[in-house]
């Protein structure tokens, strides 16, 4: 892994050189209400790197909210199916370690058993540039999920703020391919640069509001499965809107439907689905194993903090806090999980 | 639905309006006639859906309050249809596309006259808007 | 002033609470500026209650929604004691008028607030917070990095509070007076008419463009429908496909379907919408739903002279008629 310095004044040229190979650059900017979001960067002034975590996760650029799977038309004795390949290349710029870990999870999910072509095509055409996080929100808890705010895991290229420059590391093969092109604007890195990441990690850690012990939580969650009163406390306020799952970078559930444009022709598409919805686990027989809010909330917490470890050896929560920020009724996942740090009393 | 120029006519007591329906079907092949029993039964959501999806217009033909065999059917639907029109205009859609006619059960010529006028109006609107997108 | 109200509310509740009752109020969540609804089923939990300027939720929504297949709150036979701001009380009174809840079962505890803080406005001015509290004049805060600051309460209040969406509720069981001066000022503001976007636009095309721009952001999460107290169809909603023989709305999130969703939803809540603004607050995409709900409130009040939430036994305008009205 080679590292260089990229002067901040050269950031514009950096993006322009990337644009030669990649059609779109998506990075952190602001919307019309001055809130931090991911959007297409066409002008260097659109880029805002010193704001808090963008509201929406970058998953929509790899797994869109509505994805057309194929067109079909029924003729006489056959059905014609047309699939469009994705060829557009894009850069996801300045993703923080939480989002990098989430992409690692969704990569594993969409490869499990059967490779998902729609996701993997977009993924192969994407270059991921990470950045060490210095501006957390008061809802973040990445460190409790074993993620360091300066971890480069999952990025092709990783940037670390060094004041007047970014320390630039080329990590993966994809990143190295583009290194030659960028060499003209990169300068030598010196020995002191190696301590930058540690400093940022320490500083950002001190800004986080709340932390918990993940291993203890997982043990206690297993034991608390059957205690319904405990879970009811948290699910009473829920209004079953699903916004937490839509804004979660690791939530990957989807629903497939057909839309008929005219008689015998149409599109098959998939849209995001949410395990918080009543219809999610509704059987054709009419039985619903998770018909109550309390069942669905328990399922969500157990899935993120227990089940996926058994399935993929990965936590499917990255501590970004977006579910807390978007919840209309203020349900706080971090607080719920922290409550499980202590074992329940036997008589509850 | 795009490019098909459909108008939907919802009317009540279709059995007693057979002659009228025959005349409409002959003169206007692009009007689809739907029997709803009583205009008070009509759910304006379907009118909203049809107009949103690109229908040229939706016409509702009901009985005058004195004529209604269910006593209050047309009276109840009056406010609902009024609000449906207001909602359409509030969303920037053309409220002229939804029109309501109250006629006695055996009137034919006055009904045809109004339908004529309505078809001219919606064709003019459609031409102005250009090709509709579904 | 509002901190005094919290003490007094706690004393009252401890007094009137009986086993089997459910109290719906607010408590702290793990984030300093966010409060979350609290359901109290035993007396000891009353101490967790908080009443302050951050209590933005309209708690009446929990009275009108049934859990799918399981009637949540109506299960036991005790009373439901609910703490409400005057604007929330309007929603509850409208629900009683629509016969969605039984007046005898509710104990309505209304308190005059100094206005509720808009968290979007707050975060724009302060950034991420470690600690925050408010009184009738200022909001005092500490940022994550330790810096402290102070801003005027009025600069971060919700738009509906600045426009005076409050007023003395038609009925209540208990009433806590707050800062009388600011409350009266806000009621006076309400009588000043505000221009609706729909009225100021002369060109229909411009309105259509604005509507399409806003609604193209919609992801059909149904948060606006679920938080709305006027949407009391809950598990029998017309948008849930298995309940109808014919699908009214496709699952497709194209612009046409999204416009249809909002068209139908606003058509359905027309006579019951009290203008609480929760739909706009909870939208994860930030769609300006105030364009629509203010418009429908205006139509209902000018055409039928009816203000939802003003009385608990109104004749529903859509279930009645006047001879010779001749509207269409």
Order of helices and strands of chain C: HEEHEHEHEEEHEHHHHHHH
CATH architecture of chain B: 3-Layer(aba) Sandwich
Biggest beta sheet attributes of chain B = 4 strands, parallel
Count of DSSP E strands of chain B? 4
Low-confidence stretches of chain C: none
The first-level CATH class of chain B is given as Alpha Beta
Note down, in words, how this protein is organized.
The complex is a heterotrimer of chains A (348), B (134) and C (328). Chain A is α+β, with helices and mostly antiparallel strands and 348 residues long. Chain A has helices at residues 11-21, 97-109, 117-124, 173-182, 196-207, 214-223, 228-235, 243-246, 293-312, 322-326, 333-339, and strands at residues 2-7, 24-30, 36-40, 66-75, 78-82, 90-95, 126-131, 157-161, 165-170, 186-187, 254-262, 265-272. Chain A contains eleven helices and twelve strands. Chain B has one domain (7-128): Rossmann fold (3-Layer(aba) Sandwich), CATH 3.40.50. With 134 residues, chain B is an alpha/beta fold. Chain B is built from four helices and four strands; from the N terminus they run βαβαβαβα. Chain B has helices at 18-27, 44-53, 73-90, 109-129; strands spanning 7-12, 31-37, 57-63, 98-103. By secondary structure, chain C is an alpha/beta fold. Chain C has two domains: 2-114 and 169-190, no CATH class; 197-319, no CATH class. Chain C has helices at residues 2-16, 61-64, 86-97, 119-126, 159-162, 180-190, 197-200, 204-215, 223-227, 255-269, 278-282, 290-304, and strands at 22-28, 35-40, 80-84, 106-111, 129-134, 138-143, 148-152, 174-176. The chains are: A alpha+beta (348), B alpha/beta (134), C alpha/beta (328).
Question: What does the secondary structure layout of this molecule look like, with pairings?
Answer:
The complex is a heterotrimer of chains A (348), B (134) and C (328).
Chain A: E1 2-7, H1 11-21, E2 24-30, E3 36-40, E4 66-75, E5 78-82, E6 90-95, H2 97-109, H3 117-124, E7 126-131, E8 157-161, E9 165-170, H4 173-182, E10 186-187, H5 196-207, H6 214-223, H7 228-235, H8 243-246, E11 254-262, E12 265-272, H9 293-312, H10 322-326, H11 333-339
Parallel strand pairs in A: 2-6, 6-7, 7-8
Antiparallel strand pairs in A: 1-9, 1-10, 2-3, 4-5, 4-12, 8-9, 11-12
Helix pairs in contact in A: 7-9
Chain B: E1 7-12, H1 18-27, E2 31-37, H2 44-53, E3 57-63, H3 73-90, E4 98-103, H4 109-129
Parallel strand pairs in B: 1-2, 1-3, 3-4
Helix pairs in contact in B: 2-3
Chain C: H1 2-16, E1 22-28, E2 35-40, H2 61-64, E3 80-84, H3 86-97, E4 106-111, H4 119-126, E5 129-134, E6 138-143, E7 148-152, H5 159-162, E8 174-176, H6 180-190, H7 197-200, H8 204-215, H9 223-227, H10 255-269, H11 278-282, H12 290-304
Parallel strand pairs in C: 1-3, 3-4, 4-8
Antiparallel strand pairs in C: 1-2, 5-6, 6-7
């Amino acid at each position: 892994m080679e590292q260089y310095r990229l002067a901040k004044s050269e950031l514009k040229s950096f993006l322009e050189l990337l644009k030669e190979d990649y059609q779109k650059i998506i990075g952190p900017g602001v919307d019309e209400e001055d809130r931090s979001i991911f959007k297409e960067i066409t002008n260097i002034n659109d880029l805002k790197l010193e704001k808090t975590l963008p509201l929406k996760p970058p998953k929509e650029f790899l797994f869109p909210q509505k994805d057309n799977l194929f067109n079909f038309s029924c003729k006489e004795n056959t059905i014609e199916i047309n699939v469009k390949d994705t060829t557009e290349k894009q850069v996801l710029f300045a993703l923080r370690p939480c989002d990098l870990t989430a992409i690692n999870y969704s990569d594993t999910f969409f490869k499990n058993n059967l490779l998902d072509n729609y996701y993997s095509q977009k993924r192969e055409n994407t270059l991921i540039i990470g950045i060490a996080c210095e501006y957390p929100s008061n809802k973040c808890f990445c460190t409790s999920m074993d993620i360091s705010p300066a971890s480069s895991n999952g990025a092709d290229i990783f940037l670390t703020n060094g004041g007047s420059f970014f320390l630039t590391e080329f990590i993966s093969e994809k990143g190295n391919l583009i290194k030659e092109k960028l060499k003209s604007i990169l300068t030598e890195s010196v020995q002191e640069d190696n301590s930058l990441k540690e400093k940022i990690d320490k500083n950002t850690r001190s800004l986080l509001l709340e932390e918990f012990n993940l291993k203890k939580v997982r043990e206690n969650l297993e034991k608390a499965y059957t205690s319904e009163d405990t879970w009811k406390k948290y699910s009473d306020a829920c209004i079953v809107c699903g916004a937490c799952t839509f804004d979660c970078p690791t939530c990957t559930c989807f629903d497939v439907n057909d839309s008929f444009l005219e008689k015998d022709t149409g599109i098959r598409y998939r849209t995001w689905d949410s395990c918080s919805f009543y219809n999610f686990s509704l059987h054709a027989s009419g039985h619903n194993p998770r018909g109550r809010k309390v069942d669905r909330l328990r399922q969500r917490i157990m899935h993120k903090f227990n089940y996926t470890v058994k399935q993929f050896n990965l936590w499917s929560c990255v501590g970004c806090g977006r579910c807390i920020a978007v919840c209309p009724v203020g349900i706080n996942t971090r607080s719920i999980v922290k409550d499980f740090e202590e074992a329940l009393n036997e008589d509850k | 639905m795009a490019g098909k120029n459909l108008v939907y006519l919802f009317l009540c007591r279709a059995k007693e309006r057979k002659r009228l329906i025959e005349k409409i079907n002959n003169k206007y092949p692009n009007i689809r006639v739907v029997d709803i029993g009583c205009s008070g039964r009509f759910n304006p959501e379907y009118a909203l859906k049809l107009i949103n999806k690109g229908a040229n217009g939706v016409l509702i033909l009901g009985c005058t309050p004195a004529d209604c065999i269910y006593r209050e059917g047309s009276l109840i639907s009056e406010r609902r249809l009024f609000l449906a029109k207001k909602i359409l205009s509030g969303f920037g859609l053309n409220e002229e596309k939804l029109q309501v006619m109250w006629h006695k059960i055996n009137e034919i010529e006055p009904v045809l006259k109004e339908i004529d006028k309505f078809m001219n109006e919606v064709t003019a609107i459609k031409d102005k808007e250009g090709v509709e997108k579904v | 002033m509002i901190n005094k109200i919290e003490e007094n509310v706690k004393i009252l509740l401890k007094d009137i609470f009986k086993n089997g009752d459910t109290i719906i109020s607010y408590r702290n969540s793990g984030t300093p500026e966010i409060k979350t609804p609290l359901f109290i089923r035993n007396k000891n939990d009353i101490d967790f209650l908080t009443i302050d300027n951050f209590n933005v939720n309209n708690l009446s929504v929990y009275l009108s929604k049934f859990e799918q297949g399981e009637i949540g709150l109506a299960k036991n036979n005790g009373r439901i004691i609910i703490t409400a701001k005057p604007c929330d009380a309007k929603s509850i009174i409208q629900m009683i008028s629509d016969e969605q809840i039984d007046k005898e079962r509710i104990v309505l505890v209304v308190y005059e607030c100094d206005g509720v803080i808009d968290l979007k406005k707050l975060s724009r001015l302060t950034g991420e917070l470690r600690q925050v509290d408010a009184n009738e004049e200022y909001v005092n805060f500490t940022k994550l990095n330790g810096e402290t600051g102070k801003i005027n309460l009025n600069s971060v209040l919700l738009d509906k509070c600045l426009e005076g969406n409050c007023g003395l509720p038609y009925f209540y069981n208990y009433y806590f007076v707050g800062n009388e001066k600011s409350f009266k000022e806000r009621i006076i503001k309400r009588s000043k008419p505000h221009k609706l976007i729909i009225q100021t636009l002369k060109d229909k095309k411009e309105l259509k463009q604005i509507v399409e721009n806003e609604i193209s952001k919609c992801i059909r999460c149904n948060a606006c429908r679920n938080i709305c107290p006027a949407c009391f169809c809950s598990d029998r909603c017309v948008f849930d496909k298995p309940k109808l023989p014919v699908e009214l709305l496709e699952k497709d999130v194209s612009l046409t379907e999204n416009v249809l969703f909002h068209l139908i939803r606003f058509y359905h809540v027309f006579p019951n919408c009290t203008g609480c603004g929760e739909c706009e607050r909870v939208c994860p995409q930030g769609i300006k739903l105030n364009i629509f709900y203010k418009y429908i409130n205006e139509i209902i009040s000018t055409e039928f002279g009816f203000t939802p939430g003003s009385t608990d036994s109104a004749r529903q305008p859509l279930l009645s008629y006047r001879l010779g009205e001749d509207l269409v």
